[in-house]
């Protein structure tokens, strides 16, 4: 979107939400408003869940109705600093099942698209997860958003870092959950896990990873639940299960809870 590219060059109007690293800009709010306005005109019966509408007090409740789940800017901290990893993420969910994902990285002009049963694409070209099946051969991604009212969140993060760093090929952090899932889908990263994110961080990415041939499960090994805030994406079932075995779990509150 042109708007986000233009705004990236300008001084940003930044507000703090729950804490000093939980940021929102007027661009996040404007993108979300524009997307909801355009989509609701086309689909007046559909429902919407958006990060910034939820922050403004609109209920985040998933029903069986067709629902668009929107993260207007994923990677707001990156956007605020001009670090180029941020994207717009739109997931479409029917009967509580994510069926379509559209992700756009404005600076890179990367468009990721996926529809259930129809494959995953990067700028129109089919993408596939990597062939990695062992943790010892894996490049994995983590995110570092561990500042929380619950000190245990940071403790678990460092325990997992301690366990994984000596055994994997490498660890990367992108600063955007959605871009990270896109990397897993296109084979650049082999796995990624989160314990306390939101539906808008996962709705589009989980379709992309699955359609690219990857595995999307709960980090404890169970079935993925979009509203749980928990996700483990991997290039293969073997790699996913090896990661599950090595992970210390975190079940603490999300910071909005
Ligand atoms: P956002 O930019 O839409 O807020 C950054 O590490 C990644 O984690 C981004 O995808 C960011 O989404 C998300 N994020 C931001 N705050 C978080 C928090 N407190 N817990 C978990 N994820 C968070
Ligand atoms: Ca945010
Ligand atoms: Ca997000
Ligand atoms: Ca966001």
Q: What do these coordinates show?
A:
The protein is α+β, with helices and mostly antiparallel strands and 257 residues long. The protein has two domains: 2-126, Fructose-1,6-Bisphosphatase, Chain A, domain 1; 135-246, 3-Layer(aba) Sandwich (D-Maltodextrin-Binding Protein, domain 2), CATH 3.40.190. The chain contains eight helices and 14 strands. The strands form three sheets. Strands 3-4-5-6-7-8-9 form a seven-stranded mixed sheet. The longest helix has 17 residues, at 26-42. One calcium ion is lined by residues 71, 74, 177, 200-201. Adenosine-2'-monophosphate (2AM) binds at residues 22, 51, 71, 74-76, 143-145, 175-177, 196-197, 201, 255.
Structural class: alpha+beta
Number of domains: 2
Which shape, going by the Cα principal axes?
globular
Strand content: 15-25%
The helix tally amounts to: 8
- Ligand identities: adenosine-2'-monophosphate, calcium ion
Strand order of the largest sheet: 3-4-5-6-7-8-9
Instruction: Give the strand tally.
Output: 14
Write the CATH fold name of the largest domain: Fructose-1,6-Bisphosphatase, Chain A, domain 1
Radius of gyration: 17 Å
Can you say what the CATH homologous superfamily of the largest domain is?
Fructose-1,6-Bisphosphatase, subunit A, domain 1
**Helix/strand order, N-terminal first:** HEEHEHEHEEEEEEHEHEHEEH
């Amino acid at each position: 979107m042109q708007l986000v590219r233009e705004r990236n060059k300008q001084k940003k109007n930044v507000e703090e939400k729950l804490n000093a690293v939980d940021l929102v800009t007027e661009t996040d709010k404007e993108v979300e408003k524009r997307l909801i306005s355009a989509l609701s005109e086309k689909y007046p019966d559909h429902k919407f869940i958006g990060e910034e509408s939820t922050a403004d007090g609109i209920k985040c409740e998933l029903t069986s109705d067709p629902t668009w789940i929107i993260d207007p800017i994923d990677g707001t901290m990156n956007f605020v600093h001009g670090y180029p990893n941020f994207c717009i993420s739109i997931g479409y969910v029917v009967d509580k099942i994510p069926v379509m994902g559209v992700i756009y990285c404005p600076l890179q002009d990367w468009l990721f698209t996926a529809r259930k049963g129809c494959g995953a694409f990067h700028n129109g070209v089919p993408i596939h997860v990597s062939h990695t099946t062992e943790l010892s051969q894996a490049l994995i991604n983590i995110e570092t958003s561990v500042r929380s009212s619950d000190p245990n969140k940071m403790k678990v993060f460092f325990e997992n870092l301690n366990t994984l760093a000596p055994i994997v090929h490498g660890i990367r952090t992108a600063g955007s959950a959605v871009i990270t899932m896109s990397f897993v889908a296109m084979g650049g990263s082999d796995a990624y896990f989160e314990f306390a994110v939101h539906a808008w961080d996962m709705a589009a990415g989980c379709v992309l990873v699955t359609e690219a041939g990857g595995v999307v499960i709960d980090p404890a090994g169970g079935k993925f639940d979009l509203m749980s805030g928990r996700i483990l994406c991997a290039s293969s079932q073997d790699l996913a299960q090896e990661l599950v075995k090595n992970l210390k779990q975190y079940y603490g509150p999300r910071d909005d809870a």
